[in-house]
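Ticket #4471: structure output looks truncated?

Reporter: J.K.
Steps to reproduce: submitted the chain below (81 residues) through the standard prediction queue, then opened the result file.
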Amino acid sequence: MAINQISNGEPDGNSFGQSAADLISFHGVTPIAQMAQTTAPAATAATSTTPFGYSQTQADAIVTWIRAVDAHLKLKGLIAP
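Returned output as attached by the reporter:
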């Protein structure tokens, strides 16, 4: 079976959706709109002295952000649920 290319070969590339409200999906899942803007956690480095790691607030923010992005990628069909 031949692969159907979604490209016109132009140097400017291709875009899916004209606005954040356009519904898009991959791999047969139900199309959804673009994820609302989410702020990534502050880029504060982990400590290398005692106590090691991140503060509870930093760790919670990182986990919350990763879970939100993970959920949206699954809804879009870009990673398996």
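Triage note (M.O.): checked the attachment and the full token line is present. The helical segments are 56-76.
Status: closed, working as intended.
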